[in-house]
Amino acid sequence: MINEILLSNNKAKGQRPYFFSDETVERVLTITMAVAGELAVTRERLDTLERLLQVKQVVTDDEIEYFIPTPEQAQKRQHWHADYIARILRIVQQELEAIQQPDENNRNMEEILEELGRS
Amino acid sequence: MNRTDEKAQAINLPPVYNHVEKHGAFPEISHDENARFNFLTNLNRHLATVVKPGNKVAFDKRIKPWFQARTGHDFHTPAEVKEAMQQDTYYQMSSALRRATLEMTQQASRSMVLRQIDSLADKASYYNDQRPETLTLNPDLEIPHYLKVVDYHCLPGGYYTEYIAGDVANAAAEDASFFVTTSGEFGELSDGSGKALVNWLTHNYPEFKPRRILDIGCGAGLNTLPLAIENPDAEVIGIDVSAPMLRYGHARAVSLGVENVRFIQANAETIPFDNDSFDWVQSTMFLHETSIRAINNIVREVYRVLASGGLMLHVEHAQNTAEMSLFDQFMRDWDTFNNNEPFYRVMHQMDKTEWMKSAGFQSDNLLQFGIPIVNNNHQLVGNGFQARQNVFGAWK
User: Fold this and answer.
1) What's the farthest any 2 CA atoms get from each other in chain B?
2) d(CA B352, CA B363)
3) CA of A26: which chain B residue's CA is closest?
4) Per residue in B148-182, pLDDT tens?
5) A105 inside 8 A of chain B by CB
């Protein structure tokens, strides 16, 4: 079995460039963009639901408010939360990977360009 | 209505992922994964059409005057442009957004394929088992150094990593993300370069009827299949060093019913075929992910396996010209440093003419031209926008 959540958020081999003078600000931007993406995804899902409900007229507000998921459904939601958090905090996981991995996984492109252009 | 009004009204929406053509080996896409691709395709389009062009504005209005005031002269080198641009907050934000988007696109593709990694491998096997004689893998083949030194365009694990036996995950991720990264400009099956090439050949050399075609560094064969489809009497062979890409590409070909193609795991630096055995040797966006030693070996090998009168073509970045502005030269290098494409710079500066001549091709037989990318659904792109690519090559 693979841990698909951890693997999905892996860092690519090679040093990550940062453009802002403060790398922390850039990490926050990256997290914000990931959240923006997930909000767009949620908006599209809600849109699907609203359109289906309009057609079928089957769900009331109360039913949504007092909905209790089955253990299986609850488990699935927990997995979704774990996946979601890892997705938007990917940049933090990748910074840690950059620290943990050997230096050869974090070589900058200037250096590699020089090497590939030579040999 | 004046021109500005027309421009303001022309909303150029990228294609919806739901309606993209999916072949048999393609991953299953959930509702939210699809929505994520829709968001990212839009984000890519927005960055390319709204944010990125702003760098030129910032350069002209802000950075150039600042540099001139500071140094008393104009820019002399792309390195000076780079140093100045890196200090500009617009460039910083634009670049940070692009890098984040590239990473998010890889994340979205990999999270989709990795959750179904077993069933994807099964699906590939289902197709590959129908035609085992046209897929030859070589587990002993060494992955070249240039592929291991960096994960190209930020795909974690690169092209060759296998997470399970019979894995195709990163190949499927690459297939899914290509459409998003290019906002669909290369067609529903991301094969617009291959289609453009065969169109160009049919138009310019109608007498050329290749019987054996070799596609080197073919990856998942996205641009190999158009060569086979348009030359139904030809035998088409794709070689690549990555087993996941070939497994996936072969399964894709079988599912699409393309029969005159086979895939072999091999290195283009040592092509496993006889001298003078191909009429056409092709590569598409492959050379810029190698190294100087590798491309020198490759061009010699291509010359060796080409028959007399045969054709070598490479869809590849053009080299910088004397007329190109320092700013454009700097921007061309963005992916070199920031999208893990370190060999781009070398390709932009390399004299391809000398490179081809060094292998034995004659000056009179060299070619360089542009091809308009074929998009099988004009609705995909909209507003008449058409990507173009550079091609160079030679007749032997």
Assistant:
1) 70
2) 11
3) B96
4) 999 999 999 999 999 999 999 999 999 999 988 88
5) no
